[in-house]
Amino acid sequence: MISDAKEFSLANVLVLAKKKIATTCVGCHQQDDAHSGRNGQKCKTCHTTKTWETKFDHKKTDFPLIGHHQELACTGCHKGDVYKDDLPTDCFDCHQQDDVHQKSQGKKCSNCHNETDWQQQILFDHDVTHFPLGGLHSSVSCDDCHTSSNFKDTDSKCISCHEEEDSHKKTLGDNCQQCHTPNNWDFWLFDHSEQTKYPLTGKHAGLICEACHSDPVISDELELSSECNDCHKDDDVHSGRFGNDCERCHNTDAFEDFIWKAH
Questions:
Q1: Cα 186 to Cα 152: distance, rounded to the nearest angstrom
Q2: How far apart are CA 41 and CA 21, in angstroms?
Q3: Residue 79: exposure state from Cβ atoms within 10 A (0-12, 13-18, ≥19)
Q4: 254 partner at 20 to 30 Å CA-CA among 57, 138, 151, 214?
Q5: pTM of the complete model beyond 0.90
Q6: In whole angstroms, what is the distance from residue 178 CA to residue 189 CA?
Q7: 3-class DSSP state of 253
Q8: What tens digit of pLDDT does each residue of 177-204 get?
Q9: N- to C-terminal Cα separation, the chain
């Protein structure tokens, strides 16, 4: 029996001597590979002989992990072979499903957001848009004007947000900026003589806007007749016999003060 045991041990030694012992990690630990081969066979890039816990520093790559990215598992992004897959580094490529703007703001998420939180520390300079925020506009929240996440759908006309505050009831059109500023509705300046083709002289200078502008403006342009008879037809003591060219005899100071002008 002892002789048989010695012969068996010797046989094993001879087998082991002929067998080439693996010197790579995967040669012995292939069954322990939780990555199923996706991360290749260079185990020592991340692991040591002391522990399986990773020592890989993602900061040494082209995509440092900061913010919430630090909490992700490797397989959260690396779903295939890390040596064959060319993973994109743009936010939109991974977060397209999280884009509440539906591409309306483009794909450069980092212009406004960071890796800490989608909702916090949103950085955006509205002055680089076609609608800089001046006056009281600079103190309002985004939601006050942007009722949806598709920001480009927001109309930039004053009336789109301030229709209920329009004391003129659209009789002066919707180009509010001709008279008002974002500083305050009560701060306004309009020169009828400079900004229109109809200077207000005489009695016209003391009239309120609604005296002439009484109907809501439907078209984009504010158009109102400048013919005397269109406003003063009921004041025409001549009952139309002298035509509509009132300024031949009258001026804007008073109907009673008139000077005849030859044809």
A1: 29
A2: 17
A3: exposed
A4: 214
A5: no
A6: 8
A7: coil
A8: 888 888 888 878 888 988 888 999 999 9
A9: 149
